[in-house]
Amino acid sequence: MKSMRLALAMVVCLSGCAVQVGERNVLRADRPDDPPRTQLLDAASAPGWKLDELALPSAGAALHGVAASRPGNALTVLYFGGNAFHLDQHGAEVLAAVAPCGADVTIFDYRGYGRSKGQPSIAALQQDALRIFDDVNSRHPGKVVLHGQSLGSFVAAYVAQQRPAVRGLILESTTTNARDWSNAMLPWYVWPFVRLRTSPELQGIDNVAAASAYAGPALVLVGENDGVTPPRLASKVYAALQSPARRLVLVPGAGHNDVLSNPVARPAYCQFIAEMAMR
């Protein structure tokens, strides 16, 4: 009987299924029953870096992050990760990738993730990001480069749209909007049968609009084999950028989450950082 009900549900869905895509599909915050995380971003996992713990109050949340620095670095990269990013679990990989390029790095956990407390929402993440940028920029005025990966690309682009003081913008594994993002993850054979509807809170996030409102230098990195945020969508975001100081790098062999560690991406990343340091 159970298999028959499942088959019937599939037939009904294939006859014209409407799927609602909401914040819960985009934000994967920690749950009370998640196993404790034992991996830490510390001196042992990030050798050569000076690590300073950061704490910022924000409306309904306590945001926690780490500022990683090395002597002689001229710029600070403010990094916003994807929807499963955790500072302690993934931060060391970011530091290892950025280290050869000569920039400090500041990373915060989103509210509801890892070290940060609170209930996440798209609106809250956007306001938190502005709060974080303002704090980092107050300590490094005019020397902050934004880097957003996947979900973080929406956050970084939003901050760049709102804050003229941004030194440069790096969008990694980016896409246009929530609807295109969701469609890209559906297999092609269900496209004629499934209608995606994005919730009101997701309809307002649009990287094409944000990119078109940003006039500064930008670097767009996308994996050749990225099936989550495909190159064709990242190219639309790149095309919307207004600055002549922009570059799109298609990283051969890379997927969605391994762009920054790919040896092809590093020279482009370091060149961008060097150019931002000379501006």
Protein model, in words:
The chain contains 10 helices and 10 strands. It is an alpha/beta fold. It has a single domain, classed as 3-Layer(aba) Sandwich (Rossmann fold), CATH 3.40.50.1820. The strands form 2 sheets. It has an 8-stranded mixed beta sheet with strand order 2-3-5-4-6-7-9-10, sandwiched between helices. α3 (87-98) links the parallel β4 and β5. It is globular, with a radius of gyration of 19 Å. The relative contact order is 0.14. The model is unreliable at 1-12 (pLDDT under 50).
Features:
single chain; 279 residues; alpha/beta; Rossmann fold; 8-stranded mixed beta sheet; 10 helices; 10 strands; 23% strand; globular
CATH class: Alpha Beta
Given as residue ranges, the uncertain stretches (5+ residues, pLDDT < 50) are: 1-12
The ordered H/E elements are HEHEEEHEHEHEHEHHEHEH
Kindly name the structural category.
alpha/beta
The portion of residues assigned to helices is 25-40%
Q: How many separate domains make up the residues?
A: 1
CATH superfamily: Alpha/Beta hydrolase fold, catalytic domain
In terms of DSSP E residues, the strand content is 15-25%
Strand order of the largest sheet: 2-3-5-4-6-7-9-10
Query: How many individual helices?
Result: 10
Q: Which CATH architecture would you pick? A: 3-Layer(aba) Sandwich
- What is the strand tally? 10
Q: Please, what is the average pLDDT? A: 87
Which assembly state applies to the chains in this document?
A: single chain
CATH topology assignment: Rossmann fold
Largest β-sheet summary: 8 strands, mixed
Shape: globular
Cα-based radius of gyration, to the nearest Å? 19 Å
| Distance between the ends | 68 Å
